[in-house]
Amino acid sequence: MSTPRLFVFGYGYSAAVLATRLRAEGWRIAGTTRSPDKCQALAAAGIEAFLFDRDRPLDDPAAALDGTTHLLLSVPPDGRGDPVLAHHAQHLADLRTLDWGGYLSTTGVYGDTKGEWVGEAAWLRPTGDRARRRVEAERGWLGLHRQYGVPLHLFRLPGIYGPGRSAIDSLRDGTARRIDKPGQVFSRVHVEDIAGALTASMARPNLGAIYNVADDLPCPSHEVVAYAAGLLGVEPPPLVPFEQAELSPMAASFYADNRRVKNDRIKRELGYALRHPDYRSGLDAQMAAERAA
């Protein structure tokens, strides 16, 4: 049996955690980045690295993708659509070694549910341009699956956190804020659980399936910051009413939607047990790892 090979379009935070796990099992890893410096750093770390962005498709797609058994798509769509689909849809359709593919989307495709729970079968009612572009990208990837048999799955992710990108880190660097918008909740997921759900799907492919990957405890973001402050033994930032917070348009857009994301499908179909079912578990684990180091 040949060595499995993961190819990642958009080798970023979540992909790196998955790749680390698979490399420990002997997998070959390849991925794209927009930065020549990061491309060199990935290559130095033993990863087959390629430059790719909207204005720079893969130089030799057939050679870059050769031997790929698993594909992770983590490049967000831009104003012109999904750049991977635009440049390399046919190359992926022609890839006969591919056993599994995953597209990392967002729970933003559901829009605002007024705090109600939402599952994968819900109507998609995106409220902003970025989420609307995601809906179109999802349709494009599912279309590639239906038309050419590309073995694709969709994974809809809420707010991602983990070491380096948690409330602990934002408190340390002075960027943490506690915004109060009564009734507002957010779903989130630890980066290790993204990797866990993806590997569970690889073990149990269900081509064309859609999965929410979220933890069990949607809650206001200010609660997470307060808990992290307690772990650090510092005073949490003051609670600021949303109307007085003077958020940037980008930051304010995150408060436009209010929803709780169901995660029962990854548990039922994939047999996946969350490593961090709530933010307390994830933040506790980060602090414990730091102390041990």
TrEMBL record:
Keywords: NAD
Tagged with keyword NAD: yes
Domain (NAD-dependent epimerase/dehydratase): residue spans on this chain: 12-214
UniProt key word NAD: yes
Domain of life: Bacteria
Name of this chain's protein: SDR family oxidoreductase
Organism: Azospirillum oleiclasticum
